[in-house]
Every structure is written in structure tokens, then in C-alpha cells.
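We keep the chain:
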Amino acid sequence: MKAAAFTYARATSVVNALELLAAHGDRAKVLSGGQSLMPAMNLRLVSPDIVVDIGGLTELRGIAVSGDLLAIGALTRHVDLLRSPEVAAHAPLLRDAVAHVAHPAIRNRGTVGGSLAHADPASEIPACMAALDATIVVRGPGGERRIATAEFFRGIYETALSPQDLLVAVELPLSGEGARFFFHEYARRHGDYAIVGLAARAVVGGGQFTDLQLGFFAVGDRPLLADAARKLINVSVTPALLAETAAALAEELDPEEDQQASPVMRRHLATVLMRRCVAALLERPELETGGAW
């Protein structure tokens, strides 16, 4: 199939893009990298009257440290995250995750902002942003505002963006002393949609977690920061405690069945991932296989 007829407008600035979105409302779609929008249009899952192309807005591209934040422009491409020394130094979780995003052709064109705005619950980048406590920077008719990731993702392909809003950047706190990261996903083949994935950020001191954020994806209608992780903070992690935490995590998850896996399988894989993650972050390999499950 091919896309239904639409009008094309190439924005000349952020202000111009906002003017176009204000004029056309929910009849408009923003085109950044196009790796999600164009297939959806070709399948006629979405049929906008007008496509607003922001791909030429260099002001929305780039990665920089500003004070105690790492700022990433919305049009920064996935491949840029792989190559950035700032990301490697302050948010290596993103570098590790991007290597799993689809295939090189997609990574060369797909953008950070596009991934977040698309809000695919099986996507790696939204879960990483949740684990990293990112803030989404949005501009709209009322000016600029900042939205926490917990409030930004609202469901499958649903976000806090209004039709008149433009996602312009992401801000991440710089990682401090003792910060550690973990990323892994299960997929049928590298680059396929994840069956279950986990993006984690931790702070470790004295052999214990002083902070732990477990960001699961492909287990619900949005990225999930697991409440069960709180059980592992400021305590000595034992196999018994890990088993208790795994049971709490399984209760927390609400995956749907699809052609890839059943809810039971997804819950099981999520608990296996959590065990691997905790063992790796604490550098205690015995936790990955010890204890009753």
C-alpha cells in the first residue's frame, strides 16, 4: 500500500513548525527521521492532511553538557548517540541500547525525539529515558515546558504531547560517582522487536544499591519503572530477597499476549533479566543462578 494523499510542508524554523501545527492541529503529523511515520502512513494506519518536515532544523540537533545536565536535541540521530563522547561519559546506557535499535539504516535516520514521540512500548529509547530520569522538553502555544518521563508516556503510541506541541530536546542528569548501568533485551533476532527488555541505572556504594531504577519495555503499554526495585535499595541483597523481589515484579507486570510470547513467558523473562541485571551491577555472579525461583 501507499500513503493517502497529503500536503507536505518543510519547516524553516521551530517557530514556523509551531505555526504550522497550530494552523492544522490534529490533521498534521511531524516528520523527523520518518522511520516510524512513513511505514504507518504507507499502511494507512495514519492519514494526515499535512506532514510538517522538521528534518532540516539544525537547532534541534546536537549533544552537549550544560551545567549538571546532558542535553540531547530532538533531531539527534540514533547513530549520533553511538558516537558521542558525552553520551559515553555521562549516559552510556543510551549507547548500549542504541546498538539494539533495529538495523544500521534505521539508526542512521531515526531520531531520539521521533522515538520518544512515537512511544512504542517495545522501543529501547523510552525505557532508557525513564531509567535515566530524563526530562522531555516541549514547545507549544503556551511556550516551553518540561515533562518528566513518568508523566510523558501515557499508553501505546500515546504521550502528553498535544497536536500543537513539538518535542525539542531531552535533558538527563549527569551520572555521579558509583553510577552503573545495565542493558539487555530478548529478541528473536538482533534488530527485531524486543520480547522483553531492561534498561537499568544504579548507584552502588559499599556493596549495596543506594539507588536502583529498572526500566522494562515490551511488558505493557508504556515503559515501566519497576516499584519492586525499591526492595533492593540500602540492603544486603541475598538470593532469598531477590526471589521475593522477582515475585513482586511478576505481580507488577501486565503484558499482553501476541505472536512473539505469552504473558507468562514475558513475566518469566523479565524476572530472569532482573536477576542478571542485579548480579552484573553488584558484580556478584552467584546471584544470577542462586536461590529458589
User: Anything to note?
Assistant: Residues 206 and 293 are 27 Å apart (CA to CA). The longest helix spans residues 263-282. The first strand starts at residue 7 and ends at 10.
